[in-house]
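How a chain folds remains the central question behind the approach discussed here. No coordinates are needed to read the tokens, only the vocabulary itself. For completeness, the protein is quoted in full, as a sequence line and a line of structure tokens:
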Amino acid sequence: MGWMTRAALAATVAALAVATSAGAAQVFATSYDTPNGDGQAHSGSFNYWDLGYTGAGSTNVDGAPLTGGLGDLTNGVVAADFWFNVESAAGTGPYVGWRGDFGVNDPLIIFHFAGDPLIDTISIQLDNSLTGGVGAPTQILVDGVSQAFAAPAAGTIGTVTLSGLSLSGASHTIQFIQDPIFVWTFVSEVSFFGGVVPEPATWAMLIVGFGMIGCVARRRRFTVA
């Protein structure tokens, strides 16, 4: 084979195939932009701010624009109890909560990613306690498109899974359209799963590698003949 043995070539191609496959690995956002959560200024019992947010913006002001950072929505902390047991006036709870005004202030979050990941599934942890006006949204829009989803059972907290998305690109939006009765949406975590869209150079290497393996196989058949 000259510069590469058959075994090394096969290993390289196999590694490329694995690296370029769109598996179920978690894809991590590099930052997200969001309106801060609301609170007492919007008739809440406590403050439901994104207090751990690392980017620009006022994390203790209702609805303040937050940009360029990460926070409670991506910190890996999934709320294990209802909002009224874990939130506080200090805004330190695990949920970020937004109050909609009958479709006027439905929160829209922009998530940013490194490179060009392929996102197939989004997992959203939310409170559907139906207590204090807190419940599941009526719609969830991803990049402006309404997605079919099953809300957690009434009176529970749980996971909403959006699958079969096939999203590519460096940023994506999620918007929660809130219920006119249960006007508060409380989210503790948003997770993304998928793989990596191969760059053109990677595709070229993969094609060349498979072609060289095919040549080796043909040479071996000729030699045996």
